[in-house]
Design goal:
By secondary structure, the protein is α+β, with helices and mostly antiparallel strands. 20% of the residues lie in helices and 27% in strands. The structure holds the ligand Nc1nc2c(c(=O)[nH]1)N[C@H]1C(S)=C(S)[C@@H](COP(=O)(O)O)O[C@H]1N2 and molybdenum atom. The ligand Nc1nc2c(c(=O)[nH]1)N[C@H]1C(S)=C(S)[C@@H](COP(=O)(O)O)O[C@H]1N2 binds next to α3.
Amino acid sequence: MDSVVLRVSGEVARPCEFTYDGLSALNEEHQVQDISRLIPKRQGDAVKLAGILQHVQPHPDAKYLGLHSTHDNFHASIPLEPIREAALLIYRLQGRPMTSEQGGPVRFFIPNYAACHTHEIDECANVKYVDHLEFTREKGFDNRPQDEQEHAELHAQEQQSAAGDRAG
Ligand SMILES: Nc1nc2c(c(=O)[nH]1)N[C@H]1C(S)=C(S)[C@@H](COP(=O)(O)O)O[C@H]1N2
Ligand SMILES: [Mo]
């Protein structure tokens, strides 16, 4: 469990590469055991974004957080301030690293998201397969769906690739 699962870069004092063990080792005050207690439909253990922030120390002019998934080339860039206390990074399921089938290595979760494509901080910003967080001054690259049609196409693709995974 010593391979890098999450890289943190950009406008921060200490750019970091976290392993699974490194995320588990972040201070207890930042760990959330069993998030189904907070969010009934979600499972696993998480670390608070606040714990990552304390570790990497974003510059005061870091205004946006980029959530990057190499796995399926999905990216969101969202304002940092409204989510800095509430956002969670789910990274462990039943005591093990989260696999990509489970949305791992890191699944970003904002408890109070808006409906899809109604706001910068919407459900679509709950990015799965996150492997890179990037702090920027301005809004960065973002390829979330912009409207109902793009959204429907994306979900159809997701279902196809999940069916493909099941078929092996
Ligand atoms: N990596 C990645 N994350 C993603 C998506 C995606 O296609 N790829 N879809 C987003 C969208 S549009 C929504 S609405 C939510 C859906 O989360 P769910 O699959 O848990 O319902 O995941 C978001 N996270
Ligand atoms: Mo979405």
